[in-house]
Amino acid sequence: MNECWEQDMDIIPQTTLIYAFYLVCCIVFIGLLFTRFWMISILYVIWWYLDRDTPWQGGRQSAFMRRWTIWKYTKDYFPISLVKTAELDPSRNYLAGFHPHGVLATGAFTNLCTEGTGFSSIFPGIRSHLMMLHWCFWAPVFRDCIMSVGLVSSDKESAAHILSRKGGGNLLSIVVGGVQEALSARPGTYKLVLRNRKGFIRLALMHGADLVPIFSFGENDVYDQVENSPGSWLRWFQDQLHKSIRISIPLFYGRGVFQYSFGLMPYRRPITTVVGKPIEVQKTPHPSQEEVDRLHQLYMKELENLFEAHKLKYNVPRDQHLEIC
Known about the structure:
The protein is an alpha/beta fold.
């Protein structure tokens, strides 16, 4: 279980802005210790200690933060949209697989962690959470900001806490493909890392959480990557880095601020995130491998059906099919 879960959780969505903010928070926190304002950092350390378990206990969402106007501008830039194909019953808890990862999982963050596309009005009564690498919650102030938009730690204990909540109404989303999928993300590709990712399936069975397949059309189109095909020296280095520290970095590029040839700004290409019909899951506290495999096969089939049913609407060629590895 632990090994499968770690594979599912090897990277969770972030954006360039989030990376920068992470560094700024760490630098300011340390810098204050060497000024007359050192007490601010000390007081925060006390708060940090008292609040240390919150990222593993469902986080601390803020409707105010999720409704910031900046998220509307983010949505309009690409643009990004959220499409519902079936209702989500607020009396149930759900575990959603988000596909594909893309370079920075832009659609996952915008649709599931903000009200930029109106999540709460599209799915009334559902509280959305998205998983992120646990080390991000060790950065001062940064941890409070990401929790406020619904990000929680990518540990199975954190997932269990949310999925076992009585009363239902919780949607926990996982970007299943992780860094391996991110390293293959480039415009026009539909390659998913899913065939051996079963930790989230086992978790759904253990807690009786219905599975929700989500496919984000255009997720791979907003950035290009430096050539890193399997067997290249760059891909070898990225794979070694991932094996060593569970993280790797796609060498991506897009457009510039005032020109369109090169830069780190994403291309203005539409992202449409389609939320599929829930797959009903019966609670099985100790699922067998056969039960996990059976549900995993059903999940992959439903995900493929979701892709095929909507691909022509979002400019995917008729002869293009998902490649699941």
